[in-house]
Each structure stands twice: as structure tokens, then as C-alpha cells.
Amino acid sequence: MVESEDFKSKITVYVVVCWILAAFGGLMFGYDIGISGGVTAMDDFLIKFFPEVYKRKLHAREDNYCKYDNQILQLFTSSLYLAALFASFVASKVCTKFGRKPTILVASSFFLAGAGISSGALNIWMLIIGRILLGIGVGFGNEAVPLFLSEIAPVQHRGAVNILFQLFVTIGIFFANLVNYGTAKLHPHGWRVSLALAGVPAIFLFIGSIVITETPTSLIERGNEVAGHKALKKIRGVEDVNAEYEQIKLASDIARQVKHPFKELMKRSSMPPLIIGVLLQVFQQFTGINAIMFYAPVLFQTVGFKNDASLLSSVITGTVNVLSTLVSIYAVDKVGRRKLLLQACVQMFISQSTIGGMLLVHLKATSNTLTTTQAGFVVFLVCLFVMAFAWSWGPLGWLIPSETFPLETRTAGFAFAVSSNMFFTFLIAQAFLSMMCHMRAYIFFFFAGWILVMGLFALFLLPETKGVPIDVMVERVWKKHPVWKRFMDD
């Protein structure tokens, strides 16, 4: 077995450019997450598409928790993720047959089309069609970009490089919050500007999909061994890449014997990475993070901020999100995956429980909103929660599934992970405003309960993958884990 220490590499300008350009897929995804909550809080948007919600908002004292409860309004946000769910399986096939690079090109094309149609929408269904096209782009991008980053990164920096995807997600959310804060004052078409600017990161991703190299793994897997060897030398910046090349070639030879990767994924020996990959996505959503990111302006209005103040509070949480993701880039390959996840569970549990307790005591359905001090403390607790998520379950939810599947089931397995993420993102996006209406403050205890379960999962079932070469996970990780080794064939 070849050791990772034998894999020679140096970081070149070209490979860093490849990392950054590919990571714009994360920025596009993050912008889509962040923009929808601010747009749905804009009066001009509500007047045009959701006049009933606007009227209810004007009489918010009727019920502080229910003024935005509207299924079609939630469908505007959630339709993107339902489309991404189905697109991820198609993207898996495209990724395997044609490579990571063309899949990213397709993603950017759908992003551009979706941004154009949604920003020019004349009615609600045109708006949702635009979101669906964006969702197809998300499905393709979220399938290809994390795989691309994991396969192109040197083993000793794989965690940090892969987290560039999540870093760009957080930057996208931050920019979306800034844009919404500015366009909220552009009457009556500020919301159109917000949606149209989604085309900017899409253009960068489109250019990037042309400039970047295909991954050596994808080239070798598809029989282009000479091109794969050349690409490996190019991204590693050294001539002697034979040890890593032989490791990839061995994994590719095994992968080519598998004609039906989705069928292979259902075998007992494939269950450990599949279960881990899917559960990470489920748990990532049930922290409550996207409920907060989608609807941060709505949430802050609910607890007493005016429209501008709520958008500004979203900018604050977006800043915390970006800075905390940088912590993960520094720590993931030093501290390891499990420790970051476990520490974050404690911090997120305290934050969600305290927010729930404050709202339960101080924010009644029909009474006045929180005091300025109390509302400010809620923003602080949200920042504390976002901070913990951003250096743990956010980036690692994408990193771990992208590095733990063997090559023969990698794109199929990651498609299950992406589609699981999109499905539960869809559920949370579609249900959160209704859940807040019916569960009121108890919704935060609901998420806190899930965080407790996640901590137990990370403690007992999640293996550490720090420093393990991506193509030897079976031998080094799964066959040595006290629980998962029972699933592995001899």
C-alpha cells in the first residue's frame, strides 16, 4: 500500500486558480440561499406576488409568529432545492461519463438561465421556473465541485481545499445579504436587481469551467491515462507523480469493473460511506441553519427589528459565517473532523435552546415584540450558532462524503448525499415558516433536540478521515472502525 508521504506535490499558482474558480459553484449556491430570504421580506416583492402576505404583515400584531405563513411564498424558496434533488442524479451520470469539468459547465449555464428568468419574472410561475433552473444548476454544481476539489487537492491539504466550497457558500450568503440591504431601498424593482445579480457568480463559474483542468482521477477512470498523468503533473507542480498515479490507476481499474455503480452502492460493503454521507446531509439541515439563513430577515422582523434593521442583522450573521469558515480551513487538517463536529454540537445546542427559552418567555403570539436589548441578544445567539456551524457541520457535511466513497461508487454515492441535502433543505425551506407559526418558540427546541442526536452520531459512528489518501479509505478507515468493519468484505 502506497503511503500518502510518497505523494509529492507543491502548490502552484495554476492549481490555486483552479480551486478558486471551481469554488464559485459554492458562491452561486450561497447567493441563492441568502437572496431568497431578503427578497421575500421586501414589500415591493410581496405586493406584486403575495399581496395577502403583505396585508397580513401590516397587521402583524395579530400573531407575531404567523405573518409570513404562506405555502406559495415558501415554494419560491424551496422549489430550487426540489429541482436540485432530481438534477443531482443526472449530474452523477454526466460526472462519471463526461467528467467533472463539463458538469460544472452545465451547472453555470443553468445558473445563468435561472438568474435571467427569475429577475425578469412577470408572474409567480415564471418566478418559480427561474428558481427551478437555478436548482438544476445547484444540483449539477454541488455534485461536481466538491468532488473536483477533493480529487485535485494534495492529501495533506484536502480538507482545507474542499472547504473552499463552503467558504464560497458563506461568501455568497454574505454578498446576498449586502445586496438585499442595498436593493431594499430601490423601489419598486429592488428585488429584480437582487435576483439578477445571481448572474455575476454564474459568469465567473462559466469562465472557470473553461479554464480549469479535468481531474486526473476522472481522466484515468475514463481511460485517458496519458492525459491523466499529464494533468496530475500539472496540478502537483512536480515531475515525479508516479506513486500517486499508480494509486489512482489501481482505483480506476477496480472502478471500471463496476458497470452499475448505483447497484454496487446497495451492497453491504458500500453501506458505511453511504449511511455516513446521507446522515451528514440530514443532520446538516436539522441543525436549523438553513431555516435561519433563508429567513434571517423574516426571523429578525418577527423578534422586533424593522425591515432595514433585520436586513442589517442578516449582514452581521453573514460576516460571522464567512470568518468562522476560515477557522475550519485552518483547523480541519490539524484538529481533525470529529473534534470540530463534537465541539460545535455543544455550542449550537446551547444557542438554539437559549433562543427558544427567550422567545418562549418574552415573545407571545399577540403581544408586543422583544425589547431592543432582548432582540439584540437573540442576534448574538444566532451569531454564536452560525459560528459553530460554519467551522463544522457546514463545510464537513460536504467534505466527508466527497472523500469517503471508493472511486467505483464515488459519483453515485455523492449524488445520494447531494440529493439528501437538497431534499431535506427543501423540507425545511417549505415548512419553516409554517412550523414557526404552529410550533412558535418550540421550533428552536426541536432543532436543539436534533443537535443532541447529531453529537451522539459523531461520537460513536463517525470515523476520522484526516490525512487518509482518498483512494485507500476502505483499508484505512472502514475496515478499522469498531462498528463499520462488520460491513466490510474480507
Largest sheet, in brief, is: none
How would you describe the shape? globular
CATH superfamily assignment?
MFS general substrate transporter like domains
Number of DSSP strand runs = 0
| CATH architecture field | Up-down Bundle
Q: What class would the helix/strand composition place it in?
A: mainly alpha
Q: DSSP strand (E) fraction?
A: under 5%
Task: Calculate the mean pLDDT score and round it.
Answer: 86
Per DSSP, the total helix count is 22
CATH class categorisation = Mainly Alpha
Nearest-angstrom radius of gyration?
A: 22 Å
Q: Cα distance, first to last residue?
A: 16 Å
- Integer tally of domains: 1
CATH overall fold name: Growth Hormone, Chain: A
- Catalogue the unreliable spans: none
SSE arrangement, N to C: HHHHHHHHHHHHHHHHHHHHHH
Helix coverage percent of residues?
over 70%
Task: Describe the structure in your own words.
- With 490 residues, the protein is mostly helical.
- The chain has a single domain (4-487), classed as Growth Hormone, Chain: A (Up-down Bundle).
- Helix content is 75%, strand content 0%.
- It is built from 22 helices and no strands.
- The chain has helices at 13-40, 43-49, 51-58, 71-98, 100-119, 124-152, 158-183, 190-196, 199-211, 216-221, 225-236, 242-256, 261-264, 271-286, 289-302, 307-331, 337-362, 372-390, 393-404, 410-439, 442-460, 473-476.
- α5 (100-119) runs antiparallel to α8 (190-196), α6 (124-152) packs across α20 and α7 (158-183) packs antiparallel against α8.
- The longest helix has 30 residues, at 410-439.
- It is globular, with a radius of gyration of 22 Å.
- The mean pLDDT is 86.
- This is Major facilitator superfamily (MFS) profile domain-containing protein.
- Keywords: Membrane, Sugar transport, Symport, Transmembrane, Transmembrane helix, Transport.
- Belongs to the major facilitator superfamily. Sugar transporter (TC 2.A.1.1) family.
- It holds the Pfam family Sugar_tr.
- It is a multi-pass membrane protein.
